[in-house]
Design a protein that fits this description.
Elements lengths: L5 H7 L12 H4 L10 H8 L7 E2 L11 H9 L12 H11 L6 E4 L2 H12 L11 E4 L6 H8 L3 E4 L10 H10 L6 E5 L11 H7 L5 E5 L22 E6 L12 E4 L2 H10 L7 H12 L1 H22 L5 E3 L6 E6 L4 H10 L2 E2 L1 E5 L2 E8 L3 H12 L5
Parallel strand pairs: 1-11, 3-4, 3-5, 5-6, 6-7
Antiparallel strand pairs: 2-8, 7-8, 9-10, 10-13, 12-13
Helix pairs in contact: 4-11, 5-11, 6-7
Bound molecules: pyridoxal-5'-phosphate (PLP).
Length: 389
């Protein structure tokens, strides 16, 4: 690749005779984020065409979006016009899907954007260590809660899950009631990432009695069996927020579309500071087309759930793997006598990508996303060929 000649670059740099303002000291001290490799780059590195890679590492939906999404996008005539800042049509459609009035619903550029908004809404930057606003986080779980809280200048109070990944309810209660100042937000994930367990409704009722705003992240709820969503509790529960996404069940991870269901007293403040055009028109059109094609997407969810069950049965047949039960579109699996990293690498060499973990509370695990039947076949074949007894 051609690089600009260093001489011309150097002569263009001006050294001003005054000091340049520094970035926020807390951000200057932050570690750099390890980005996920773009799929094309990865495909080059592995020396495999993208469709020869079995990608089971990010809980993406291998079926992709509904075919109606591409159709609707190709017909859409107004890409040059700014989106509706109020997202009226999309909020109405989501309202029909979740059964909660549209006034409670705010779409976002992925659920991730709404997590950032919530941290900024509740955590006041500044103050000294003992008076900073805090969140309660229950690891092992999705990393964005603590990431966003710290970015907003908040303190993260970790209340680790028990060994079976269930919540330590008494410890959460003690953390909320015992901390001074009291934490503002409690983040719960149901089904949880990375293990796929649900928060029992009775546990949630108990935690909602605490003086804290409870954020239930239901990114994977479409893959759970039974009526386990608490979205419909929100209008009657002033301290409950539910987050959802189109990334997993509807296959729109690359288009970025999520939404939150908020009590009216909370959503009114989000309207004041959200970016006016936070959801672009492509994501909006795709979201609407997905909701119109919900029956097809539900069939695909059923296939992914069947494949998750098959993964659980088949992975258990390998003596070095211990898969956990899951209500999401992935299976967490303990690697018993082989380092998880080694399993992950050996699979990647065969073009099968899974995620591995090796950290406190998550020592030696791999997480495998449920894919199409052929994806499972490829994974099982690759595992079989590792020659691990
Ligand atoms: C994938 C995931 C999200 C991210 O959703 P986006 O809408 O893609 O931002 C949120 N929460 C959890 C637990 C997830 O695993």
């Amino acid at each position: 690749m051609a690089t600009p000649s260093s001489r011309s670059t150097q002569s263009a740099i001006r050294n001003p005779p005054f000091g340049i303002p520094q970035v926020r000291s807390d951000i200057a001290r932050m570690e750099e984020y390890t980005p996920v490799q773009p799929f094309e780059v990865l495909s080059q590195r592995l020396g495999r065409a993208p469709d020869a890679i079995v990608k089971l590492d990010a809980n993406e939906n291998p079926y992709g979006p509904s075919p109606r999404v591409a159709e609707a996008l190709s017909r859409f005539p107004w890409f040059h016009i700014y989106p509706d800042p109020q997202q009226g049509a999309l909020r109405d459609a989501i309202s029909g899907y979740v059964g909660v009035p549209a006034g409670h619903i705010l779409p976002g550029h992925g659920a991730d954007e709404l997590l950032d908004y919530l941290c900024r809404l509740y955590l006041m930057p500044g103050g000294n260590e003992s008076s900073r606003d805090a969140i309660v986080n229950c690891p092992p779980t999705f990393g964005m809660y603590s990431f966003d809280a710290k970015l907003s200048g908040g303190v993260v109070i970790d209340v680790p899950r028990k060994e079976d990944f269930s919540l330590d309810v008494a410890a959460i209660e003690a953390a909320v009631l015992g901390a001074d100042p009291a934490p503002k937000l409690l983040f719960l994930t149901s089904p949880n990432n990375p293990d796929g367990s649900l928060v029992p409704l009775s546990t949630l009722r108990r935690l909602l009695d605490l003086p804290v705003v409870v954020v239930v992240d239901e990114a994977y709820v479409e893959f759970a069996s039974g009526d386990v969503s608490v979205a419909q509790w929100v209008p009657q529960t002033p301290n409950l927020i539910v987050l959802r996404t189109f990334s997993k069940w509807a296959g729109l991870a690359g288009l970025r579309l999520g939404y939150g269901i908020f009590p009216l007293d909370i959503i009114q403040h989000l309207w004041k500071f959200k970016q006016p055009y936070n959801v672009n028109v492509a994501a909006t059109v795709a979201g609407l087309a997905s909701l119109e094609d919900a029956p097809l997407l539900r069939q695909r969810i059923a296939s992914l759930v069947a494949e998750r069950e098959r993964l659980q049965r088949e992975l258990a047949k390998f003596s070095f793997l211990r898969p956990l039960p899951s209500q999401a579109n992935f299976v967490l699996c303990e690697s018993l006598c082989v380092p998880a990293r080694q399993v992950q690498r050996a699979l990647a060499d065969q073009g099968v990508l899974v995620r591995y973990y090796d950290k406190p509370g998550l020592r030696n695990f791999i997480r495998v996303s449920a894919g199409r039947p052929a994806d499972t076949d490829a994974l099982l074949q690759a595992l079989g060929s590792l020659g691990i007894e």
